[in-house]
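Batch manifest, entry 17 of 40.
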Amino acid sequence: MLSPETVKLAIVDDHRLFRQGLSYILGRFPSYEVVLAAASGPELFDGLEAGLRPEVVLLDLHMPGMDGKEVSSRLLAQYPAVKIIILSMDYSPDFILDLMRLGVHGYLPKDIDQRLLGQAIEQVQTNGYYIDETVAKIMRNGLQSNYKSADTKVPDAQIVAELSEREKEVLTLLCQGYSSSKIAERLFISFRTVDGHRRRLLEKTGVGNSVSLALFAIRNHLLT
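Output type: structure tokens
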């Protein structure tokens, strides 16, 4: 019987050996259950339409036919509750920026240590995204050189100037992976107050989710 905290996973990769190996590794941990291993995007959606409901999809970027970006776009539109972590050896800034802007929740190398993969899955589940130092640097450089505001017509500098010190504190902790309850403990405020700060941050920055909020913070050097 599964623990209430067991995370249901899907693995989507056109290489059978990789699917089998990752399924075996993750299957050894009681906190994960691989409910679907698919060789392609269409096979993933067949499983979803059949009633399988993974909470996190570990998705290859380069697959024949429907690639990872197309799969992500359709997943985000049709199954918004499902979190997406891209697993790829392609660390092209263009791919990373496009997919994070699209709304995927994490981007990791395929040779990642299993401990770090576990941390990423946990943060995606609790915080809504996972961004490691390498991806953050790529995003920061790319966003500063190519950024054209799609989220808001208000200049970033004006938005940052209007953020209170408490809102900046909450934003930093959110982007570092702290849950609302942990932020409340750390700042000695109530959970409800943290939730209110988060809502105001979304309103002021003009973004719609935690991933976009993290992009805003990275773009404006609000994270160390």
